[in-house]
Amino acid sequence: MPDIIITDSDLKDPTIDDMINLQKSLAPQRDEKVEEIKRPFYLHPIFYYSVASILGALVVWILSEPYHSEDNPHQLDMFIISDYLLFGPVAGMLSLSIGVVYGIVNGNWMKSLVCGVVGLGVGLGATMITTVIAVFAFIIIQIVAFRMNGTVPLHGPLDLRGLPFFMFVCGRGIAWSIVAMGAGLGLGVALKSRKLVLNGLVGGMLGGLIGGLFFDLISRFVVPNATTGGLSRGVGITAVGLFVGIFIGFFENISKEAWFQMLKGPLAGKHFILFKNVMRIGSSPKSDVYLFKDPDIAPLHATVTKSGTRFVLKDENSEMGIYVNGRKIDKYILQAGDTVTVGETVLRYHEKQRG
Fold this sequence. Notes:
Elements: H1 8-12, H2 14-26, H3 45-68, H4 81-105, H5 109-149, H6 162-190, H7 194-222, H8 230-254, E1 258-264, E2 271-273, E3 278-282, E4 289-290, E5 302-307, E6 310-315, E7 322-324, E8 327-329, E9 331-333, E10 339-342, E11 345-351
Parallel strand pairs: 3-4
Antiparallel strand pairs: 1-2, 1-11, 3-5, 5-6, 6-9, 7-8, 7-10, 10-11
């Protein structure tokens, strides 16, 4: 091979520096080969939101049931207010539970507290409005059902049969659907994400509708010989919680455009959905993708910004840098299947297929 001769003009040529920098960017600096892993079932949003919502609903039922007992002489029976004392705590506790469990599965206790408190406030606040709408909607449907049945609403749905009973059941479902929208809004408000607000709104309404349908079906077919309505209320409220959790998790899962899956790290298998325009990656609890227990990760290590239909990963002047497919980058347009290494944590970028 002949000798390579570099002249003074070559040394001063700026294009040489550009070629060297390009070559460096193409040369692998880290060879991070990590096998694909499956997401554990307990890290799936449908599972953890459902469990959290069931527990929240049970807590409300246990604490509130003494005040709904037929034997309680001090039971409050004021129009709208008595309904809010059921709907408000249920929606508030479901929203609190969803917010808390979101923080827990992300290993972020500060976010659990913030999302839980904001969720409780949003749930209680929204239900002050939705209760009024739900009660009047239910009253109208209830009047129509009893008139069709030729009776008066003295003993509730136990007097109804056939189509009037079906209408009454649907009325209860519609009322819970209106109320449960407040249960789904809290997480999106806490995380300042319009996408999560929409997911929670739709998921809460559908979950409330289906759960609400169970209220009177349980009274009629599951516990027809119960001496009080306590068990029916307990199972009914729990059903509302279950379905609210299922549908919020379901819509969060199907509506995601792009996400990271952790292949290596403390939450291996978990999906981090890119749910807003600027996502912060770092070791600070304020991060959207919170990567803890890693001294090589800066509080704000990198950001992901949506640009059109693509997502751009940018190193935020971190000391250790960030690598995509083994190459150190400053700014990079993410492609499906990219492997992103941040400190000792390895993430795989995924996105929905584009039509």
